[in-house]
Design a protein that fits this description.
The protein has about 110 residues and is of the alpha+beta class. It is built from two helices and five strands; from the N terminus they run H-E-E-E-H-E-E.
Length: about 110
């Protein structure tokens, strides 16, 4: 299976890691949309939000605990946004579950 994020997790494709634990890795997005744009990625290959199972509940929880740690480490004291794109209509381009952690400036229009 060709999955760019699995290759990053294995270290076969370089990335700028900002966080890692047993369940999750996080690295800078190649094409940042904000001063801080980190991708938080479960180490287990899960294709999208639609593919999360009950067994993955711990992993998904770990994603949000990692987000909190990363935000603190990167000084996002004024807040941040977490976005997941699920499927075609949402513009998901990489088929490995990931969460965009965005911050570093005041964000404009809310999308929700
Ligand atoms: P999405 O559109 O939600 O699927 O987000 C995929 C994200 O992965 C995009 O923001 C890309 O810029 C980012 N991306 C793709 N390839 C890499 C890579 N090799 N290293 C870091 N980020 C990447
Ligand atoms: Zn993968």
């Amino acid at each position: 299976m060709d999955c760019i994020f699995c290759e990053i997790i294995k270290g076969n494709i370089p990335s700028t890691k900002v966080y890692e634990d047993d369940f999750v890795t996080a690295f800078n997005d190649l094409n940042p949309q904000m001063p801080v744009h980190v991708l938080i990625v479960p180490k287990k290959h899960i294709a999208s939000c639609n593919d999360i199972t009950e067994d993955d509940a711990l992993i998904v929880g770990k994603v949000f605990l990692a987000a909190k740690e990363i935000a603190k480490k990167l000084g996002l004291d004024n807040g941040y946004r977490i976005i997941n794109n699920c499927g075609k209509d949402a513009g998901q381009t990489v088929g490995h579950l990931h969460f965009h952690l965005l911050g570093g400036k005041t964000m404009g229009e809310k999308i929700i």
